[in-house]
Design a protein that fits this description.
By secondary structure, this protein is α/β, with parallel strands linked by helices. Helix content is about 45%, strand content about 20%.
């Protein structure tokens, strides 16, 4: 049975985290971690301190660009269940619960609340081979654009 619901608002430099219990009450204040390996270590220590064990915790984060990928991999590697959410889904849920303002803190709570409601639907996450192909396609496009820039400079 899930005892803790963790919402993570993913960003480039730092992530905002909110932890709710099964009654929807905050388990400690929301907090921020760096978007780094040290930040993930801080997250895992804090979750453990708040009783959010891997077996009893569900974690949700928005699929914003590629920023969520390393965090998801680290959390899954630590044994947590992770659901990647479409940002449109969290925006709709925020509108339903009438939290109109958009802040990182509110978004983290909205994501945790969405998980708790049972209405969260996992976003499509391509397998590793498709992700690799996408990375190669992005790299090729960037290299082609660089080539055109260099040709214009000649």
């Amino acid at each position: 049975m899930v005892e803790r619901f963790v919402g993570i608002d993913v960003a480039l430099r730092e992530h905002r985290i909110a932890v709710l219990d099964r009654d929807g009450e905050a388990v400690g204040p929301s907090f921020t971690i760096a978007a780094s390996k040290d930040g993930v270590a801080t997250l895992l220590r804090t979750l453990d301190a708040r009783g959010a064990t891997a077996a009893q915790t569900l974690i949700g984060l928005e699929a914003s660009g590629h920023l969520w990928e390393n965090l998801e991999a680290a959390l899954i590697g630590a044994g947590y269940r992770v659901i990647v959410l479409n940002p449109r889904q969290t925006r709709r849920y925020r509108d339903v619960v009438r939290r109109q303002a958009k802040t990182d803190d509110i978004d983290a709570h909205v994501i945790a609340g969405l998980l708790r409601s049972g209405a969260a639907q996992a976003s499509y996450v391509p397998d590793e081979q498709i992700q690799s192909l996408r990375e190669l396609a992005r790299l090729r496009a960037r290299l082609m654009a660089d080539r055109q820039d260099y040709l214009r400079q000649l």
